RNA sequence: GCACGGAUGGCAGAGCAGCUAUGCAAGGGAUUGCAGAUCCCUGGACCCGGGUGCAAAUCCCGGUCCGUGCUCCA
């Protein structure tokens, strides 16, 4: 079994081979905490959560790092508006991040470095770049000089220096006052009046946007590491800039072996943005959708594809996830918490083979969900068959926990699932006698072909949340 | 304008050269007073034009449309 991943730099799927056998270092760009997390952040977090889960499942020892850019222009502007310290803004939104990502069952990374805790390393790296003549000091900060490494340009985007020069057009004059060339980018920005700042050899200021990730990945993962990830909107300029910084500083290339980028989220076919007014924070979404259903929805397309967030896909996710949850919790209940090895059960073996092949093919969660749906379908008919084969059921339980739970993270814990089912059962016993007597009345109405009365009683039961099902061997009912 | 990605049945979304994707929806049947649930069955797609293959949704070339990025913006 071979894992293949799509590498943005080579623009193709490549067989995954880590630098050190059996170990994987992975760095994924996290958020700039200037506002509460939105569902695009959730998608990024979930995508890399699942990538890490699958790497671990495949036997790799994984070191997963995800950062917070806790100082930046937008954070400063929010802090000025509110008249509070910038760290208060950042910490508040980082708290929000952890709260919602925990709810979405995103496992914690091994470390969450922050820019403000990496200042010495950042300064050291900038100094190194200056010493190596790749960066220069200007009146408003320190800049990386693109022309010192033109061969590195466009590794991720395919653009050349000339293209960008043309594309930038009239904006050249508006960016960065001290730059020698408009394509140069800031490594250190000198502080203006009232801005947060740190001491440096070039004056008090703060790091530019890109250098932090080079410094933090170096600090936590070393001079070369396996996977660097993030949203596809970061490909340019952020990740291109990182290549310049890291490779020029360390003197070798490539520093990053595989570049992985997740796709963006559209709302009803349009880009999600604050200006369009179709902006969903995760908290907004969680008011309407169960967290695990949202997670399900966000992995319904492979991580590189754009996801269109619309009511149809949400409704689909609600019903599909609901089916998974109720069959799982019911099977768990009947099998009394026992787990059974599923190997040897043909259908489950086949599903296992396909789900593995799908996940090994650039983490295709869509394929995985298809297999899970198919397993759920046969489990549901097993439960409905009245055979009460708890041995077989417990094998299904184990399979679902392994793939829907451990790998995709879309199952609640067994105790939560059990209590969901028990709630149903207790609700059932609560209203049982009333329902039974109504059903008897309805039965006699039906016997005398009094259909209006029969339907009236059925409506009454519907109001109570009871679904009536007539069948050849009598009338059954269940909680909707 | 330039770069990168995408275009598959009513919708969502696999497919990476030969073999049913799948789910939802639709139609037919079984069951039913009706409805629901369940089971069985069915139809239906590969943006356009060329090219290379015994064979192309799948590879190549050209076009059209869509998305994203083009310097601090998720």
Describe this structure in a few short sentences.
The protein is α/β, with parallel strands linked by helices. It is built from 15 helices and 15 strands. It folds into three domains: 19-267, HUPs (Rossmann fold, 3-Layer(aba) Sandwich), CATH 3.40.50; 310-412, Four Helix Bundle (Hemerythrin (Met), subunit A) (Up-down Bundle); 429-479, no CATH class.
Would you give an account of this structure?
It is a single chain. Helix content is 49%, strand content 16%. With 480 residues, it is an alpha/beta fold. It binds one RNA strand of 74 nucleotides through helix 1, helix 5, strand 7, helix 7 and helix 10.
Gyration radius over CA: 28 Å
Class per helix and strand makeup: alpha/beta
How many domains? The number is 3
What is the helical fraction, as a range of percent?
Answer: 40-55%
CATH-defined topology of the largest domain = Rossmann fold
- Could you name the CATH class of the largest domain? Alpha Beta
Taken from the alpha-carbon principal axes, the silhouette is: elongated
* Number of continuous helical runs: 15
The CATH architecture of the largest domain would be 3-Layer(aba) Sandwich
Record field, number of beta strands: 15
Strand arrangement, major sheet: 4-3-9-10
């Amino acid at each position: 079994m071979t894992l293949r991943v799509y590498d943005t730099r080579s623009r193709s799927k490549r067989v995954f081979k880590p630098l050190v056998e059996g170990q994987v270092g992975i760095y994924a760009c996290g958020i700039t905490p200037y506002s509460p997390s939105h569902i695009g952040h959730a998608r990024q977090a979930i995508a890399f959560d699942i990538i890490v889960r699958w790497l671990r499942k495949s036997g790799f020892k994984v070191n997963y790092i995800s950062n917070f850019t806790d100082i930046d222009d937008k954070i400063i502007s929010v802090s000025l508006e509110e008249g509070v310290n910038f760290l208060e803004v950042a910490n508040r939104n980082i708290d929000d991040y952890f709260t919602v990502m925990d709810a979405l069952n995103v496992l914690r990374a091994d470390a969450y470095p922050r820019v403000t805790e990496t200042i010495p390393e950042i300064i050291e790296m900038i100094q190194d770049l200056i010493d190596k003549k790749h960066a220069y000091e200007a009146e408003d900060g320190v800049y990386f000089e693109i022309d010192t490494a033109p061969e590195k340009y466009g590794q991720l985007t395919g653009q050349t220096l000339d293209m960008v020069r043309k594309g930038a057009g009239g904006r050249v004059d508006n960016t960065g006052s001290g730059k020698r060339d408009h394509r140069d980018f800031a490594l250190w920005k000198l502080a203006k009046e009232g801005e947060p700042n740190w001491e440096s050899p070039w004056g008090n200021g703060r790091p530019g946007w890109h250098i932090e990730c080079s410094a933090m990945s170096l600090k936590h993962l070393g001079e070369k590491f396996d996977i660097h990830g993030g949203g596809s909107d970061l490909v340019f300029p952020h990740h291109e800039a990182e290549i310049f910084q890291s490779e020029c500083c360390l003197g070798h290339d490539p520093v990053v072996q595989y570049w992985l980028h997740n796709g963006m989220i559209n709302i009803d076919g349009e880009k999600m943005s604050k200006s369009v007014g179709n902006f969903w924070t995760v908290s907004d979404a969680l008011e309407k959708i169960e967290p695990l259903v949202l997670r399900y929805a966000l992995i319904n397309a492979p991580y590189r594809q754009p996801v269109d967030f619309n009511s149809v896909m949400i409704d689909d996710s609600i019903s599909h996830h609901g089916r998974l949850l109720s069959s799982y919790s019911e099977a768990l209940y009947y099998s009394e918490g026992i787990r059974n090895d599923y190997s040897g059960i043909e259908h489950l073996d086949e599903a296992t083979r396909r789900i593995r092949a799908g996940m090994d093919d650039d983490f295709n969660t869509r394929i995985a969900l298809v297999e899970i749906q198919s397993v759920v379908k046969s489990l549901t008919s097993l439960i409905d068959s009245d055979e009460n084969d708890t041995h077989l059921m417990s094998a299904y339980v184990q399979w679902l926990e392994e793939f829907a739970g451990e790998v995709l993270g879309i199952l609640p814990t067994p105790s939560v699932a059990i209590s969901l089912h028990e709630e149903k059962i207790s609700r059932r016993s609560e209203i049982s006698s009333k329902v039974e007597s109504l059903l008897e009345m309805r039965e006699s109405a039906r016997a005398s072909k009094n259909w209006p009365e029969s339907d009236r009683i059925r409506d009454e039961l519907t109001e109570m949340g009871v679904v009536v099902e007539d069948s050849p061997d009598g009338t059954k009912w269940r909680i909707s």
